Amino acid sequence: MDFKTSNEETKTGIYLLQDGSEEPFNIRLHLAKDILTIQEQDVICVSGEPFYSSERTVTIRRQTIGGFGLSIKGGAEHKIPVVISKISKEQKAELSGLLFIGDGILQINGINVRSYRHEEVVQVLRNAGEEVTLTVSFLKRTPAFLKLPLCEDCSCVPSDQSSGTSSPLCDSGLHLNYHPNNTDTLSCSSWPMSPGLRWEKRWVDLRLIPLLHARLSQYVPGTDICRQNAFQVIAVDGVCSGVIQCPSVDECTDWLQAIASNTSALTKHNVKKINRNFPVNQQIIFMGWVDEKEQDSVQDRMYTSKFLALRGSSLFKFSAPPVTTWDWTRAEKSFTVYEIMFKILKGNELVDKRKHCFSVQTDSGEDIFFSVGLECELLLWEKAFQMATFFEVERIQCKTYACIVDSHLMGLTIDFSMGFVCFDAATKAVLWRYKFSQLKGSSDDGKSKIKFLFQNPDTKLIEAKVSVLFWFLLLAS
Prior knowledge:
The protein has 477 residues and is mainly beta. It has helices spanning 89-95, 118-126, 249-275, 375-396, and strands at 11-18, 25-31, 35-45, 51-52, 56-61, 70-73, 83-87, 103-108, 111-112, 131-138, 172-173, 188-189, 199-210, 215-217, 230-234, 243-245, 284-298, 301-311, 314-318, 333-336, 341-344, 357-361, 367-371, 398-405, 408-415, 419-424, 430-434, 439-444, 449-455, 462-474.
């Protein structure tokens, strides 16, 4: 069945990708409803059946005006070969399908120039004669600092580079050593063994990230350091997009929200399918990735990714999304919904530089801190906990807890239909009783003390009742 939602986002754009220790390079990012595609540029043969080739050989001759019609950047000083950075308009038609912006020059007339510095390559080309045979290979990951255009539609107006030095970060026009009496037009040919082959620069798939149960984060893994205008997406199988760098805060936010929206839609659809196998009182309400704050954290490992799921009466914590029924029995930890307390952290309650955080206080009084990437995700978790708590209270109807009132051991019963009853644990004598309609307010200290404000039906006065609850001493209701 095709799953569609009005919230599905489709986006495409050109950005920088930081992949490991490599220099950032240009990629095209495409977002569909269920997958994020990362593409890099490559050159493929389009004569007949398309195929890839690591190297191509092209023979060109100088023109009287414009020389070779090429400009170059880079060199061994940047740990890359010299790269073709511009192709002039005059030569573009002749060179179409043979040479491309982004081609690295590997050999010049059989001379291996892979390890040559920029100025050394310029000197070789000056002395190369009227006909030059270039062996080139398209550099898919040309460093972004070279600022090469992403298309061939750029003009090059060569300037005289016959004297002086050239910069590896600036274009060097290859019209060197031309002779005024030479009126031959530029000729290009493919390598002798493969006549007639034509090539095209295309965007090809580098990485595919399925969005179902994918993780999205701006933070350096394990830390509270937020990358500026950058994020990464990690698939459920661990495949990482690499760090995607956007040019502005707004554009980065748009991508984060779009990816989160599509991931959320896929999760909802998946939950519906899974719930067909569970009884009504064991339905999944919500699930997704969070980062858990480590209790004994060190500087480079403050957070660990966890997968939380609210299902039936329990909150489950996993190291990976549950796939089979058996997986649900192997949770790292589980908590009963009505014995924990969810709280969104704000201002001084935040424990570090992470902004979108919530805590879960367990029945033993332990606070567990979690972080999510976006405010919208935080609100989804808040709504999910509210729903889970309501459904569970509605199901059990009545629960009794041990508590201390005025230094005496008491029982506090909360009945979904009848209201609140406080009684002596030993004698069962009722100390006070109020209906839900009489509850005018309540507060707690975030740990075990809770204060109720009830309105007396006769005097209409507000009466305060304070109890210290022992969540782990559950009495028979």
